[in-house]
Amino acid sequence: MVQHLPALNRPATPVCSVCIANYNGEALLADCVESVLRQEGGIAVEIIVHDDASDDASVDLLRRLYPQVEVIVSDENVGFCVANNRMVEHARGTFVLLLNNDAALDLDAVSTLAAATMTQDRPGILTLPQRDWESNELVDRGCLLDPFYNPTPNMDPARSEVAMTIGACLWMPRALWQQLGGFPEWLGSIAEDLYLCCVARLDGYSVKVTRSSGYRHRQGASFGGNRASIREGLRTTFRRRYLSERNKTAVMLVCTPTAIIWPLLLTHLVLLALEGATLTVIKRDGHIWTRIYGAAIAHFFRDLGRLTKQRKVLQNSQKSTLRQYLSCFSPIPRKLALLARYGIPGIR
């Protein structure tokens, strides 16, 4: 069951609907919502929060401090994809901005995104430069992809065209969201942003990052783990790793144009199995295979028929060439770079 808590004094015709998916974000929401309310530029914005059956006081906080925020309260945890689909379905803005509850916008973020959209003949997906919450250091300017669909941070200020933007800050016309079908709910959580950006690029739309403004992000706060540092290495969780490997493999099959997918997919699955077996032996933990790699590979083969049908639908409507689609891919495997810099990841 879903309960709608209406907002007070919401704009009659919002230009942008900021959609914030929340689960147990009581300690994060104030920074996030305040950053939207403080936006400069005079652009009419509505704020929608989907609470995913939190067991903290998130909803009470929103009702008490932010009556201008519309809240969708779910009595069951439905995940990131369903949460965002519900919010966009309820949104009224010409554009939607998906914003993580552990992120905060710069003061000119919305006006920068709106201005960048106006320069495009065919508006696509946009993001802002991402900075670390604590250090304020640049994390990425959108992401490229390696051959196996692992996101590779773009650090080049001269490069605006990227392969994907993470869902922590993703701007696009609401009509384009509806045309592409939004987030695929079969993914659950993780890689839904990868899927949407790849589908958009297959259909000939751009995915770009602005040259100015930005947002700060508490990396890993909203889904646990996957934060890297030289001192502590790369930290992740069993659930996150399983969903990441499972979902990236599915997106690879569904979205990669032409018959190149088959040798690429075979190589990926072999390397994935070797990676899982190696980590299992090194860490002496059989759960690494049973809960992450073996489980992800088994799920992929169980789902192969449905994924192949989905691939056929997308590839039949493809407008971009293979060269255009691969123009934002990097030949260097991202996992090798992470291993060289941070060592073997910690999994909890």
TrEMBL record:
<feature type="transmembrane region" description="Helical">
    <location>
        <begin position="249"/>
        <end position="274"/>
    </location>
</feature>
<dbReference type="Pfam" id="PF00535">
    <property type="entry name" value="Glycos_transf_2"/>
</dbReference>
<keyword id="KW-0808">Transferase</keyword>
<protein>
    <submittedName>
        <fullName>GT2 family glycosyltransferase</fullName>
    </submittedName>
</protein>
<keyword id="KW-0812">Transmembrane</keyword>
<dbReference type="InterPro" id="IPR029044">
    <property type="entry name" value="Nucleotide-diphossugar_trans"/>
</dbReference>
<comment type="similarity">
    <text>Belongs to the glycosyltransferase 2 family.</text>
</comment>
<feature type="domain" description="Glycosyltransferase 2-like">
    <location>
        <begin position="17"/>
        <end position="123"/>
    </location>
</feature>
<dbReference type="InterPro" id="IPR001173">
    <property type="entry name" value="Glyco_trans_2-like"/>
</dbReference>
<keyword id="KW-0328">Glycosyltransferase</keyword>
<keyword id="KW-0472">Membrane</keyword>
<keyword id="KW-1133">Transmembrane helix</keyword>
